[in-house]
């Protein structure tokens, strides 16, 4: 006689998955990853998408190795000698060839570096300077509104007079504009120091002097959207 | 950990290595200069199909978006019929007086000083002796055969020379407007009002200098120079 068991064979037990021995070692790794991943993602997204990361340090190659360090720094030329529209207009004009020629018609006329300048001069063509600072076209910006109100070039462009090649030193993002529009006082300087990049508004004048400027000139930068988006 | 199967171990290590790439790129972007323009993730209307001041326009032969006025035309407000004010000329001769539009006031002199410091000091020096920083540098460059590269610098004239003292204001105006010999034109950079302001300031400098040198005859030039010096802006910039 056979027992039923013997006839049908042993009862089939369901196959159970057993984690291999080595998987124990993974557990701490998984926990660490779950803790680190959100922090990592947050950091990478904030810094990776930040305008500071993308915009600051942009330094295109220019057709002529023009150096602000020599011209604005060592020769002491005022910014307005070349960017002469900066006080009256929205745009700070890049100087025409003629402006360079006030000196370079005599100075280093045989220089290799100045070949494109002479080409432009004799043929009447424009030198194709590469734009460094470039806001999106839907933003309205105005130099004279800032320069005539005690905001210096250095607040937005950094120490141009120490740069051999111009690079962007601020992010020019909307948050950056608003930061100053909400509290312009730390950036205000006397009107005759606007183009003096060595002047530090926080160090070279007292807090009272800054407040005096704020109140004396009645400076109230607007945060309304239509100020910059018009 | 060491008893992990190879593929799993590599996958783990791979993840860590891949995860390190974005931070490394970010640190690189933030610490070095780069010549690639910014990426516009979302175009929106960042780059619109219009031409802005000083932009290039391939449609025109000279590639400029800003057009020059057609030859022989005069824009409104640019007629400049008042030759005294606009050219410094009265009855075919250099004007000897300031035009009626320009009143010599302390405000005008202050404006003139500011403009003189921007546009003239680099060559002519703070008190006008022709000893500006550009002049010093250009002379140094000319004297150094490795840097000269064809430099033929003519020293700027001192505005205290007797022939300049004798020049009528109209002639000074013409010098700023059209340049003279090796000195370039400043017509496009200094407007008419400011040119007269600069001349008023030059006259003031000449007067101050003449009275100062009358007092200190015999003192050498370097000492006298300090008398007429308007301010130390140029020196301050250097520090």
Task: Describe, in short, the structure shown.
Chain A is 41% helix and 0% strand. Chain A has 230 residues and is mainly α.
Explain what this protein looks like in three dimensions:
Chain A is mostly helical and 230 residues long. Chain A has 12 helices and no strands. Chain A starts with a helix and ends with a helix. Chain B is mainly alpha-helical and 239 residues long. Chain B has a domain at 83-228: Cytochrome c-like domain (Cytochrome Bc1 Complex, Chain D, domain 2, Orthogonal Bundle), CATH 1.10.760.10. Chain B has 11 helices and 2 strands; from the N terminus they run H-H-E-E-H-H-H-H-H-H-H-H-H. Chain B has a two-stranded antiparallel sheet with strand order 1-2. In chain B, strand 1 and strand 2 form a beta hairpin. The radius of gyration of chain B is 29 Å and the shape is elongated.
The overall strand count of chain B is: 2
Q: Could you say which overall geometry of chain A the principal axes of the C-alpha atoms support?
A: elongated
| Main beta-sheet strand count, sense and barrel state of chain B | 2 strands, antiparallel
- CATH class type of the domain at 83-228 in chain B: Mainly Alpha
The value of Rg of chain B in angstroms is: 29 Å
Per CATH, what is the topology of the domain at 83-228 in chain B?
A: Cytochrome Bc1 Complex, Chain D, domain 2
Tell how many strands the DSSP assignment of chain A holds. 0
CATH superfamily of the domain at 83-228 in chain B: Cytochrome c-like domain
Strand content of chain A: under 5%
What structural class results from the helix and strand content of chain A?
mainly alpha
Largest sheet of chain A: none
What's the assembly state of these chains? heterodimer
Provide the fold topology:
The complex is a heterodimer of chains A (230) and B (239).
Chain A: H1 4-8, H2 26-49, H3 51-55, H4 68-74, H5 79-82, H6 97-104, H7 115-123, H8 143-147, H9 153-157, H10 174-182, H11 207-216, H12 225-228
Chain B: H1 6-31, H2 83-87, E1 89-90, E2 93-94, H3 106-119, H4 121-124, H5 133-143, H6 145-148, H7 162-165, H8 169-178, H9 192-215, H10 221-228, H11 233-238
Antiparallel strand pairs in B: 1-2
């Amino acid at each position: 006689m056979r027992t039923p068991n013997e006839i049908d064979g042993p009862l089939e037990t369901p196959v159970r998955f057993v984690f291999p021995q080595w998987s124990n070692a993974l557990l701490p790794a998984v926990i660490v990853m779950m803790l680190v991943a959100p922090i990592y993602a947050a950091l990478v997204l904030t810094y990776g998408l930040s305008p500071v990361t993308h915009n600051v340090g942009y330094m295109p190659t220019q057709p002529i190795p023009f150096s602000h360090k020599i011209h604005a720094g060592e020769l002491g030329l005022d910014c307005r000698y070349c960017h002469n529209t900066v006080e009256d207009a929205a745009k700070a004009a890049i100087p025409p060839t003629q402006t360079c020629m006030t000196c370079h018609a005599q100075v280093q006329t045989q220089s290799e570096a100045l070949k494109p300048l002479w080409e432009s001069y004799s043929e009447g063509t424009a030198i194709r300077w590469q734009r460094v600072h470039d806001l999106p076209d839907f933003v309205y910006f105005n130099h004279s509104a800032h320069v005539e109100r005690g905001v210096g070039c250095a607040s937005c462009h950094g120490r141009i007079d120490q740069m051999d090649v111009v690079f962007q030193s601020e992010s020019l993002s909307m948050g950056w504009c608003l930061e100053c529009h909400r509290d312009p006082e730390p950036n205000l300087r006397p009107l005759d120091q606007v183009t003096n990049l060595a002047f530090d508004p926080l160090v070279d004048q007292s807090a009272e002097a800054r407040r005096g400027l704020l109140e004396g000139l009645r400076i109230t930068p607007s945060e309304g959207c239509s100020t910059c988006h018009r | 950990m060491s008893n992990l199967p190879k593929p799993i171990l590599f996958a783990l290590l791979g993840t860590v290595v891949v995860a390190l790439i974005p931070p490394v790129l970010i640190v690189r972007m933030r610490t070095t200069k780069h010549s690639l323009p910014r990426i516009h993730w979302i175009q929106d209307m960042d780059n619109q199909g219009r031409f802005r001041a000083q932009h290039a326009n391939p449609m025109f032969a000279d590639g400029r978006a800003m057009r020059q006025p057609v030859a022989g035309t005069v824009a409104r407000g640019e007629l400049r019929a008042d030759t005294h004010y606009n050219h410094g000329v009265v009855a075919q001769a250099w004007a000897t007086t300031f035009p009626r539009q320009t009143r010599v006031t302390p405000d005008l002199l202050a404006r003139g000083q500011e403009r003189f410091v921007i546009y003239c000091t680099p060559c002519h020096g703070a008190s006008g002796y022709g000893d500006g920083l550009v002049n010093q540098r250009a002379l140094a460059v000319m004297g150094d055969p490795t840097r000269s590269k064809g430099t033929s610098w003519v020293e700027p004239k001192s505005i205290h020379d007797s022939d300049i003292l004798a020049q009528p204001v109209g002639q000074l105006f013409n010098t700023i407007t059209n340049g003279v010999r090796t000195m370039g034109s400043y017509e496009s950079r200094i407007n008419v009002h400011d040119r007269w302001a600069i001349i008023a300031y030059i006259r003031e400098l000449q007067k101050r200098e003449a009275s100062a040198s009358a007092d200190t005859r015999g003192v050498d030039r370097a000492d006298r120079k300090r008398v007429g010096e308007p301010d130390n802006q140029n020196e301050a910039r250097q520090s």
